[in-house]
Amino acid sequence: MKNIIIYSSDASMCLSFLMYLQNSYNVTTTTDLHVLQEVSSCLDFDMIIIDTQPSKKIEALCYELRKAKTNVPIVLTYVYENQVKDFDKTIRKYTNSIIYKPFDLNEVTKQLSTLFV
Fold first, then answer.
1. Among 65, 50, 59, which Cα is nearest to 89's?
2. Which domains does the chain have, with CATH numbers?
3. For the stretch 15-26, what's the b/e string if a residue is b when 16 or more beta carbons lie within 10 angstroms of its beta carbon?
4. Each residue's pLDDT expressed in tens, for the chain with a length of 117 residues
């Protein structure tokens, strides 16, 4: 089974992802961005999902993750807003997929499946 790590500052979102994906994947969740960085650097995950608005800090994190984990898909989920338009353009260089909220969990599952092919 593939291993996925998910970060969201929202514990309810972490729980939702965990409950929805646990039958198909081994899922690890965290609400602490520092934990995501530490755990993903020392354990092997097949995918990283980051649920947060883009910012310089998140762009730098995605850059570092991409550099360290070149073959691991990175997925970013967030609510698209005009003020993040510039971040949206630049952060795409370091992610494999961006999923805008609100999203349908069935569509998320399909998207994740395609990234594992």
1. 59
2. 3-106 (3.40.50.2300)
3. ebbeeebeeebe
4. 999 999 999 999 999 999 999 999 999 999 999 999 999 888 899 999 999 999 999 999 999 999 998 899 999 999 988 888 888 888 999 999 999 999 888 888 889 999 987
Global pTM value: 0.93
Q: Which long-range contacts (CB under 8 A, 24 or more apart) does 70-75 make?
A: 72/45, 72/46, 72/47, 72/48, 73/46, 73/47, 73/48, 73/97, 73/115, 73/116, 74/47, 74/48, 74/49, 74/50, 75/47, 75/48, 75/49, 75/50, 75/99, 75/111, 75/112, 75/115
Tokens of 94: 């370091």
